[in-house]
Amino acid sequence: MAAEVVLEVRGARVAFGGVHAVDGVDLSVRDGEVVGIIGPNGAGKTTLLDAISGFVPLDAGAVVIGGRDASRALPYLRARMGVARSFQDARMFPNMTVRETLLGGMHQWFAAGFVSHGVGISVARDEERLADAALDDLLDLIDVRRFLDMRIADLSIGTVRAVELAWIATRRPRLVLLDEPASGLQQSEVEVLGALIHRIRRNAATVVIDHDVPFVVGIADRMVAMGLGRVIADGAPEDVLAHPDVIASYLGSGTR
Description:
Layout: E1 5-16, E2 19-30, E3 34-38, H1 45-53, E4 60-65, E5 68-69, H2 75-80, E6 83-85, H3 98-105, H4 114-119, H5 122-141, H6 157-170, E7 175-179, H7 187-200, E8 205-209, H8 213-219, E9 222-227, E10 230-235, H9 237-242, H10 244-251
Helix pairs in contact: 3-6, 6-7
């Protein structure tokens, strides 16, 4: 039995002035699947993620998440539908500790409000105990225990990426969108990052865009290549990399 389609993009178009950054893109991602998107600068990869997550409006087409049309939904509503998004620069509060960041990610699951937690009524105390237990489970998945009491600003880029993935996992997403997660990392950190993505993919469909093609090949079940806003190849990673249009896009079409 085929896994459920979590994300379906139909004929998506996004234009900035006269430039079509995304030009008629179709994309589907199933539950538990990792789809890697590659392409040169200006191919429209980040704009496509922005359109899926609601940060830029579609000029045409549709975005369907978990069977629900989200084409006109604002980003926070898409987050409630199960979309979790990272950016090229990890957007977390630099002065918060790792513990505060991860517990903050769980806040959406709390029923008690701010005042209840402030005065420590029983419901709030129960929720705090559940959050601590959930944090332990999360740290078994992505082990950042030794950094829990450190500020985000004091961490290496690789560790910040790991914390970001852990924060995403706290939201229990159905769809994870990762924008250049390997950017700025050393090779050893890239290898660790790939393993972490495989861990959080168990309960979510995942889309990863990155310029590090070997990294994408290493984690993707399927690969999509974009050029000038369009999909030029879609399939198994080895087939996409052998596609003549993909080769021309990266290496040029000349004979030299």
